[in-house]
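Long-time lurker. I teach an intro course on protein structure, and each term I like to show students one example going from raw sequence to a predicted 3D structure in token notation. This year I'd like something fresh instead of my usual example. Would anyone be willing to generate the tokens for the chain below so I can use it in lecture? Attribution to the forum is fine with me.
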Amino acid sequence: MPTSLNAVGIDDWAFTKGINYGTAIIDLDRHTVIDLLCDRESKTVENWFKNMPEVKVVSRDRFSPYAMGVTNGSPNAIQVADRWHLLKNMGDALQTLLERKRQGIIASQTADDENVDVPPMQIAVQSHPVNRQSTRHKRLEQIKKMYADGVALKAIARELRVSRNTVRKYIHLHEPPSRQGIKTTNLARFIEYLYTRMKEDKKVKVVKLFNEIKGMGYNGAKSTLQSFLYPYTKKRNLTRLLMLARASWSPSKVSVLLCKNEELLSEKEKKVVVDICNASTDIMEAKILASKFRHMMENRRGHLLGEWMEEVSRSCIGELKRFAKSLMSDYQAVENALTLPWSNGQVEGQINKLKTIKRQMYGRAGFELLRKRVILHSAYYHQN
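-- Reply from a regular --
Happy to contribute to a lecture. Here you go:
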């Protein structure tokens, strides 16, 4: 262990994922692992930092036991929240907003087309959707009914034995999302091409379409295409197929696009963002607020954080309000993250090396041997 420390980064690592965790402490100046702790309890972290009073900067994620441990063990140290996790948390808020607005946007896009005289379509279609999805439809109805009756999300998840993320997603949906089809392949890329071909040749065979898009890079099976095109080849309702091209986006991917610098987006990505923002003023407002937060981070303008949070509080975006509220409990560390150059980037790299060494031992060695190997490995490569 070095005789003096200036800046350290801390993060957790898993003995057994989802069950028990330890803590890695990295010297940010020397780029080395300096210690491993056997757990991630605040008292353990506190005791370690009490023995290292010379530490001036601590970079960490927003895990509350770490915040408490560092505060109690090294009260004079500057704490810096991890920027990646801040962006991830904001992206999660945007994803929740998009999930809430998604089917409403699809319905409005469908209604805008004068030729459409059918109900809003699903993003993925299967040959016998009612029989295949009846259980999932029932679960959706149960979730929505329980939520309308005032049952908490956690209680719904426990009662129905599903995750809270599933409950949170389903309460905003009119139809359950499909497990198969367009979402698990790159079929969305070829919808406009399929529409054009089926419009030109009303008797074109699915096998011919499959061979054509296979040569263009389609990575799915023929059965997936047959299942997907079944309603359109049977009824020749090509308007719904064309609308699918406009609606084939996922909240998880679009939330990344909303946070991203517009200069880094492709023309297709820009079009998706513009279409979605035009369909919802809430999403447009959320994109502006997310861009301001990213701009603060990129330009180290942490002094504007309070102003940004006030602007969010005046908005009508509940998801971003909750994100901003969560920052209040760790405000100074978040402001430091938007101002100072320190980050947990290299800490993540060291954790990956730790995982490699742990796997080499196949779980047969104890914590002390793992600790020695990781520290010596890190010191050796630093010297060389």
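Some talking points for your students: The two ends are 17 Å apart (CA to CA). Confidence is low (pLDDT under 50) at residues 113-133.
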